[in-house]
């Protein structure tokens, strides 16, 4: 039972860190001039962390946040299967809005350093459609 409680605690901490990372990402993007369209855009197929507009381009943004390097760099978690899922979700979103505009996929890799501060690596045009 204790192990299960620790698992749940870790899960909540992971969700809290992910939510904090998305807050940081949203603030960062706004400062860069992006217009946030949606956050945690959900469909029956999955979720897109952030959808934003960068000038005339719709940007689908995956945010990965880590407290340490135990599982590697945050951006490494955006593997082939995750990219395919994001592409499909983006296609559904574009069909829904009925606009033909350029699209791009970015990854925001956020790492908490040893002083508790968050460092952001913004990978623009991280992968192709």
Q: Strands, helices and their partners?
A:
Elements: H1 2-31, E1 35-43, E2 46-54, E3 57-66, H2 80-97, E4 103-112, E5 118-127
Parallel strand pairs: 3-4
Antiparallel strand pairs: 1-2, 2-3, 4-5
Q: Briefly, what is this?
A:
The chain has 129 residues and is of the alpha+beta class.
What are the main properties of this structure?
alpha+beta, Trna Endonuclease, Chain: A, domain 1, 37% strand, globular
Explain what you see.
This protein has helices spanning about 1-30, 80-95; strands at about 35-45, 45-55, 55-65, 105-110, 120-125. The radius of gyration is 16 Å and the shape is globular. About 35% of the residues lie in helices and about 35% in strands. The protein has a five-stranded mixed beta sheet, sandwiched between helices. It has about 130 residues and is α+β, with helices and mostly antiparallel strands. The protein has one domain: Trna Endonuclease, Chain: A, domain 1. The chain is built from two helices and five strands; from the N terminus they run αβββαββ.
């Amino acid at each position: 039972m204790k192990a299960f409680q620790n698992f749940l605690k870790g899960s909540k901490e992971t969700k809290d860190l992910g939510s904090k990372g998305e807050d940081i990402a949203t603030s960062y993007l706004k400062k860069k001039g992006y217009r946030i369209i949606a956050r945690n855009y959900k469909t029956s197929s999955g979720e897109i962390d952030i959808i934003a507009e960068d000038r005339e381009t719709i940007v689908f943004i995956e945010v990965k946040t880590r407290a340490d390097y135990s599982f590697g760099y945050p951006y490494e978690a955006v593997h082939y299967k995750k990219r395919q899922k994001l592409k499909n979700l983006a296609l559904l979103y574009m069909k829904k809005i009925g606009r033909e505009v350029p699209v791009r996929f970015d990854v925001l890799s956020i790492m908490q350093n040893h002083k508790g501060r968050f460092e952001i690596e913004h990978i623009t045009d991280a992968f192709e459609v």
